[in-house]
Specification:
With 148 residues, the protein is mainly alpha-helical.
């Protein structure tokens, strides 16, 4: 168990979620966090040095958030279409919209789900002292770390 002082400056969960939804690092709020493009990622946040994939299941968690958001939207569209067009559901157009959602939404929200899952993971498993020290070393320019 890490010492309590390690987490003294830890942001709260709502703060981390808000930062994640803005594609910022949930820990330090640096814009862009781990992403250099929509799909291109860096190994660490350039601001605080934390790794984006802190555990082996990070990608699985991020994909799960993406799937839940996509299926949630698809369900809302289906229910709305069903209720709005009762009793004659236009199956073709509804299926077309659902297919478009299934293709577009996961790609559109990919970086958001990665940063959102990072916020959840940081809240569930805050960085240990050793991980914070490693992150700090990663942010120091290489010339300052090596001996002359």
């Amino acid at each position: 168990m890490p010492h309590a002082s390690v987490h003294r400056n830890r942001p709260g969960f709502p703060t981390m979620v808000g930062r994640a939804l803005l594609r910022r690092c949930p820990w330090c709020a640096r814009p862009g966090a781990w992403f250099t493009g929509w799909f291109a990622r860096q190994d660490r946040c350039p601001g605080c040095g934390l790794r984006w994939a802190r555990s082996p299941g990070f990608i699985t968690g991020s994909m799960t958030v993406n799937i839940i958001a996509t299926f949630g939207l698809m369900t809302a569209v289906m229910v709305t279409a069903f209720v709005a067009t009762l009793p004659d559901l236009p199956v073709g157009p509804v299926v077309g919209v659902l297919i478009a959602i299934a293709i577009i939404v996961p790609v559109a929200i990919y970086p958001l789900t990665c940063t959102l899952w990072a916020a959840v993971e940081l809240a569930m498993r805050p960085p240990e002292a050793i991980e914070l020290a490693d992150a700090l070393l990663a942010t120091v320019p290489s010339a300052a770390v090596t001996d002359p």
